[in-house]
Amino acid sequence: MNINATLIGQTITFFVFVMFCMKFVWPPIMNALAARKKQIADGLAAGERGKTELELAAKRATDSLREAKEKAAEVIAQAEKRAAQIVDEAKGNAKAEGDRLIVAAHAEIDQEATRARETLRESVAQLAVAGAEKILRREIDAKAHAELLEAIKKEL
Length: 156
Fold this sequence. Notes:
Layout: H1 3-136, H2 146-155
Helix pairs in contact: 1-2
């Protein structure tokens, strides 16, 4: 066997093998590589989109939390304001009720004083009549001398 013939046979066989690979093996491998490349690119793009969406979601969550805190502070301020109003109203009502009770007490005191004066006048008038009766040693008719007794009451 000649080395040249072997070398030529191997070369032809190699070219046939290369042609076979180029025709039947190479395209599926290239398609698989392209599909894998596309899948990797899509995965990276999805990862970037996910990262962007995560940042946006974090930003929205921060904004929502800030808004919730502002609303809570506003509600607390309104509640404190309303509580102060209720306290002021209660103080005003208590003051008005106290003033009303004081006025009623003064009126009752005045009425009691007037009744006491009337009772005292009556007692003094009776004592005056009794004293006059003892002085005169006779009985004075209260009905007969009603005008005199009324005049004495008014003077007292």
